[in-house]
Amino acid sequence: MATAFKKTPHVNPLTKFGEKSTTDNLYWNNLDVPITKKEYGNITHIEFSPVAPYNYAVTNSTRVQIYSSRSNQIVRSLNRFNEAANCGSFRSDGKLLVAGSDDKMVRLFEPTGRSLLRVFKGHKEAVLVTRFLADNKRIMSASKDRTVRVWDIASETEVAHYAEFKDYVKCGVASQSSPDIFLTGAYDHTAKLFDARTESSVLTVDHGHPIESVLLFPTNGIFLTAGSNIVKVWDALAGGRQLTQLCHHHKTVMSLCFCSRYQRFMSGSSDRHVKIYDVGSYQVVHSLDYPANILSVAVAPDDSVVAVGMEGGLLSIQHRNKDKVKVQETKKKQATFHYKLKYRHFKPEGEDMVVAQKRKEKMARYDNLLKRFEHSKALDAAMEPHVRSQTPEITMGVLLELTRRGALKAALAGRDTHQVQTMLKFIQRNMWRPNFSHMTDLLNVVLDLYEGEIAGNAVLESSVARVADIGDCEQAYDVELMRVKGMLEGMFSAREAAMTTTDGLEGGGGEGVSGESLMGGALLPSAAAIEVT
Amino acid sequence: MATTIENHVEADSEAVLSLCAGSSLAKGQIIFSPDSKYLFCCSGSVVKVFNTTNGQCAQQLRGHRDAVTGLAINPVNKLQLFSCGLDGVVNRWDYSDGVLLKSHSFYMPLYGYVSVDPSAKFVYAIARRPQASNCCVVHLSLRKSQKNTSSKGDNSQQTSSDSVKTDVLVPLCSADHRTVTQGCNDEYIASVHGHELSVHRCKKRTCRKFTAEKNNPFTCVACHPTEYCLATGHANGKITIWWDIFSKKNSVMSFNHWHSLSVQALAFTPEGSYLLSGGHECVLVKWQMNSENKDFLPRLGTPLHSITSSPDGTLYVTSHTDNVLQIITSNFHIEHAIRGLARAHLGIEDPSKPIPVGLLCDPRSKALVTNGRPGHLQFYCMNTDTQLFNLDIVGQNYVSPDNLKKPLVVTEVEQAAFDRSGNWLATFEHWDDGQMTPEYRIKFWSYNRKQQNYQLNTTVESPHTQVVGCLQFRPQSKSQSPHTPAMVSTGADGFFKLWILVSEAQINRTVERWTCDSVGYYRDRPAGMARFSEDGSVLAVAFQKTLTLWEPEDNVMKATLSLPTCNKHIKFVEFGGKSCSHFVVTTTDSHLTVWNLISLSVHLRVSLSVAVLTTDGDLMAAVTTDQDLFVFRPSKWEPIFKKEKAVENSVISAIFLPQTAANHSSATQNGGHLNWQKQSRLYLLDCKQQLFTPDYLGDVTSAQKDSSRSGVSLQQTLPQTPFSTILSSSRQGEDMSTISVGRAPGRQLPHGSSSASVLDVMNTAVPTMEPFHAICGQFIESLLIRNKGVGESMEQEEESEEEDEGDSMATDSS
């Protein structure tokens, strides 16, 4: 074959209502069926080890369990706690693990062994937060006794002590870039940024609700606080200015975590949803559902595992699908291969020449028919119910190709009443689509061909009337749009005149972006939205 | 100073515009060498010899003064080739060495060979005799004219009258080599003309005539190689096979009808077991004789013009109307495609604008870019005179129409633009059949380094509500920080739009796409040509008689330039470059105006009806509607180069292409190169799609001689084997030059020259050969990448850059 037959291009339908399938959706939908585990008590904290193979520590009841991310089995269980454990977290090299406990002590473990390395005593109430600082030599802890303390690991002594909060300190994180900075949030609605070198906090923001979780970007510039059903974004460099607030949950947000190399973050809430946000736009890009109230969320650094801890000790583990496509292929082969070839497993050696088997590229039926110049049949194939209703862009593409070949009339001619009716219905349904401007041409051709038949047939007459109604509506929209555009243009030019005091240049000046979105409707999503409203 | 030397007007009389590309490969006869290793075809006044194994041009035979039309192998010496042309000359060549052996003049245009006598003393050729309106097949004696050619000059009148007496065999035929052929054993000649098929026996001088059906004239004819059997093609697509044409009774006919359009080409395979046919459907059909079987090779790209089968029957060559030859094996696998400058708009007669895109330069490969096959852009390398590749813009199948008189409207690329770095290409395609809603589409293509090709990035449907008149990328200024890539498009709907590149972060990658940034308009007038200034700081858009200047950053109009007395619309807008960057040149149907952008006033105004305007640096070239060529600097109207009636046909586009290193060195060697073409060379395209460039007459011929001499003998241009690469001693120096010069994308040209040394080694006796370990060392060394050499070439480049800067400094100061 000289050149392969080029497939008929689809006409971009542009607007689809309902849920849009973005790359984020595809990415997060590509997770396996969750593996659910039942633990003894509420899973209050999950944390992944920062180093491969990304094992994770699940804190529940009186133990911290370390799960393997490969086998989903417990590889180590640290249960040297007298009362409930809290906030089991890894050091940045993954070699040490620290956890607080309701028994007022902070314990330091080696995740590979069971041995208890250090015990830090000093808190007067249950310790809720324990974190390593970025220098890996110190630990910060926060407790129900409203204090935040910093401990030196080597000497097992307290090096700093802050008693600035008025209520339980619920959450905290250490900065990853600077060894002295850490952020804590408390039930007294405030979040405070501490510098271990100073005596008191360096920054305080008021969240307005008891804070359940905080998150600090690696650059220390921006941090997030979550309390009640609100997540707030703060700019630390601008002295704690609130950048935005996100209100996508309808119950308390319990946990925040980063994912996708700090390009996205997640919030888990007691409304059983996990929302994923884009850090650039702070828009929700995806949402995951779970069976129970979510208490803790964590994602492996390479996004390969999503672990969610829920009330009642439910732990959900989801792995990312990597070889989904491969699995399907092998299945297909098995189904169609009736008998095995004798030398199927023969492996070519050094001097053997491998002649690759040429696979015929599979083409859609309408393409095959177009290739053979069977235009009428190609139109039939493109007008099949599932094609025309689910993928009108294919039908439109075939119709355009027929037009280009000058074969549209011939392909449309000689149809019975039912087929003409389906054609009219197709036109009626798709006329509004901004990119399907050829629909009116198609309607003209149909009317030209079947003028006589439509006149006497009540069914066809009514369908033509319906198409005409749609056309009238579209026209009315257009008029309305032009009005809006006129108003906007007036406003823009008024603003421009106010802004620039330069002498009047002849003619019109440049227009703003929003003016354009109405004009070049093909491009911007906002334009498409206007087209329909 | 360099400028003072350049400023004087070049001696116009010496310079001519020489044809450099665009002559048709497909029109003339195409034949194979007897061993099927070489393919001969006519390309203008040159006979080109191609290697069938690698598709490379092995030899160019120059000597004709007009287009070559016919080719034949000398039956006495199979290494010799006869050629004939419209200049009435029959030449005999040794094609392996590229030497012209003998030349015979007949003083009447020859349109192709029919056959050569086995003794090589006579030829039958299609000719148009002096004062005759029709063509005929004449019997030319090569002996007679030998004497004539020896005594040239004064006797020319006599000889011409002599040759008129030549023997006419077929009194009436068409001037197309496909309509006349010779039958088996050289016994008869068959020709078709209109509705008449005539079969002439050469020795008996008898003639038998057949007529076709009404309204269904013959189009072509082919003779069976062994039997008294003919095949004729008809205008309605039918192929008639005439059996036993010399029998007393009515001859038997059989019909094959597959083609829906007229049959353009017919050929029998050497054994006569198959018949090949082709036509406008772009399908090669192989009919098995005496059976119903047929085989198809579909979608060959463009309509077929002629088919030739090789003497051993393993290869076929199809020639296509877009100037492409395809070498096809007998099992329908395309081996090679030999492409010339592709002709746009096949079948569609629109001589006013055959190439809407005009001429462009690909900044990466320095190739010439223009319309190629329908919906494609072709990249054409001027140095090697080959088409590099066709870029499919539209992505639609070429479908031949049901009726040739009503051609289908194809989606055609109407505008294209490259950005200066070659990273982006923008194209505008348009489809309008006058009945349906027209389609307009702008596509943005990004260059993919891995695949060495342009890939689609963004498609914009209906960017303007009417035809887009101009696309232009905003150049990056060297002094300021780089801005986001931007492009302007102007539409007949009165708007111009600025498009910018935006990047969108997605979950696992960032996606770049183009989006409309802003729109501008002026008094409801259609927007004409748009140009950015050299540093990208000013955008000029022509709105009928007014030129508007805009700031591209925030799209604010800065000034308007118009002459109250002038009511004609502005056709071309060009900014000056380098020392003339504060000038903008506009042309109307009657005047060329140079504006000074600093004072916003007219700098100078010349009465000149400009058809084409192009610019490069501070030089501008204007071609008037009378085909006068002016090269000037916008600062003052003193043409650096002037040539009246530069070309015969109207010029549709012009461009300056940067001189490559190889080109440049050869030019300096020859000495008298036109000074202003040092940096870049001017090319003009006329409406017959032929490319011209200004050159000295002596320059061209000497260069041609050089090339013909330097052309290595045919044996050595056989494809490279791994062994030939091993034993090459002469290779080392040449290799470096290809590394520094070879910037052209795509495949590396195989090295032919090394095989000479291989032969050398093979012919030496074993005992006298070098010890094997000595060769080994050399071989290993040849595989190494020599750092030192690369460094040297880099240094050279730097030096040349410095020189450039020095030049520009000099011009600035002056």
Automatic annotation (TrEMBL), chain A:
<feature type="repeat" description="WD">
    <location>
        <begin position="246"/>
        <end position="287"/>
    </location>
</feature>
<dbReference type="InterPro" id="IPR019775">
    <property type="entry name" value="WD40_repeat_CS"/>
</dbReference>
<dbReference type="GO" id="GO:0045943">
    <property type="term" value="P:positive regulation of transcription by RNA polymerase I"/>
</dbReference>
<dbReference type="GO" id="GO:0006364">
    <property type="term" value="P:rRNA processing"/>
</dbReference>
<feature type="repeat" description="WD">
    <location>
        <begin position="120"/>
        <end position="161"/>
    </location>
</feature>
<dbReference type="InterPro" id="IPR015943">
    <property type="entry name" value="WD40/YVTN_repeat-like_dom_sf"/>
</dbReference>
<keyword id="KW-0539">Nucleus</keyword>
<feature type="domain" description="U3 small nucleolar RNA-associated protein 15 C-terminal">
    <location>
        <begin position="346"/>
        <end position="489"/>
    </location>
</feature>
<dbReference type="Pfam" id="PF09384">
    <property type="entry name" value="UTP15_C"/>
</dbReference>
<keyword id="KW-0677">Repeat</keyword>
<dbReference type="InterPro" id="IPR036322">
    <property type="entry name" value="WD40_repeat_dom_sf"/>
</dbReference>
<keyword id="KW-0853">WD repeat</keyword>
<protein>
    <recommendedName>
        <fullName>U3 small nucleolar RNA-associated protein 15 homolog</fullName>
    </recommendedName>
</protein>
<dbReference type="GO" id="GO:0005730">
    <property type="term" value="C:nucleolus"/>
</dbReference>
<dbReference type="InterPro" id="IPR001680">
    <property type="entry name" value="WD40_rpt"/>
</dbReference>
<dbReference type="Pfam" id="PF00400">
    <property type="entry name" value="WD40"/>
</dbReference>
<dbReference type="InterPro" id="IPR020472">
    <property type="entry name" value="WD40_PAC1"/>
</dbReference>
<keyword id="KW-0698">rRNA processing</keyword>
<dbReference type="InterPro" id="IPR018983">
    <property type="entry name" value="U3_snoRNA-assocProt_15_C"/>
</dbReference>
<comment type="function">
    <text>Ribosome biogenesis factor. Involved in nucleolar processing of pre-18S ribosomal RNA. Required for optimal pre-ribosomal RNA transcription by RNA polymerase I. Part of the small subunit (SSU) processome, first precursor of the small eukaryotic ribosomal subunit. During the assembly of the SSU processome in the nucleolus, many ribosome biogenesis factors, an RNA chaperone and ribosomal proteins associate with the nascent pre-rRNA and work in concert to generate RNA folding, modifications, rearrangements and cleavage as well as targeted degradation of pre-ribosomal RNA by the RNA exosome.</text>
</comment>
UniProtKB/TrEMBL annotation, chain B:
<dbReference type="GO" id="GO:0006364">
    <property type="term" value="P:rRNA processing"/>
</dbReference>
<dbReference type="Pfam" id="PF23769">
    <property type="entry name" value="Beta-prop_WDR75_2nd"/>
</dbReference>
<keyword id="KW-0853">WD repeat</keyword>
<feature type="compositionally biased region" description="Acidic residues">
    <location>
        <begin position="794"/>
        <end position="807"/>
    </location>
</feature>
<dbReference type="Pfam" id="PF23869">
    <property type="entry name" value="Beta-prop_WDR75_1st"/>
</dbReference>
<dbReference type="GO" id="GO:0003723">
    <property type="term" value="F:RNA binding"/>
</dbReference>
<keyword id="KW-0804">Transcription</keyword>
<keyword id="KW-0690">Ribosome biogenesis</keyword>
<feature type="compositionally biased region" description="Polar residues">
    <location>
        <begin position="723"/>
        <end position="740"/>
    </location>
</feature>
<feature type="repeat" description="WD">
    <location>
        <begin position="61"/>
        <end position="103"/>
    </location>
</feature>
<dbReference type="GO" id="GO:0032040">
    <property type="term" value="C:small-subunit processome"/>
</dbReference>
<feature type="repeat" description="WD">
    <location>
        <begin position="256"/>
        <end position="297"/>
    </location>
</feature>
<protein>
    <recommendedName>
        <fullName>WD repeat-containing protein 75 second beta-propeller domain-containing protein</fullName>
    </recommendedName>
</protein>
<dbReference type="GO" id="GO:0045943">
    <property type="term" value="P:positive regulation of transcription by RNA polymerase I"/>
</dbReference>
<dbReference type="InterPro" id="IPR001680">
    <property type="entry name" value="WD40_rpt"/>
</dbReference>
<feature type="region of interest" description="Disordered">
    <location>
        <begin position="790"/>
        <end position="814"/>
    </location>
</feature>
<dbReference type="InterPro" id="IPR053826">
    <property type="entry name" value="WDR75"/>
</dbReference>
<keyword id="KW-0698">rRNA processing</keyword>
<dbReference type="InterPro" id="IPR036322">
    <property type="entry name" value="WD40_repeat_dom_sf"/>
</dbReference>
<feature type="region of interest" description="Disordered">
    <location>
        <begin position="723"/>
        <end position="755"/>
    </location>
</feature>
<dbReference type="InterPro" id="IPR057644">
    <property type="entry name" value="Beta-prop_WDR75_2nd"/>
</dbReference>
<feature type="domain" description="WD repeat-containing protein 75 second beta-propeller">
    <location>
        <begin position="359"/>
        <end position="686"/>
    </location>
</feature>
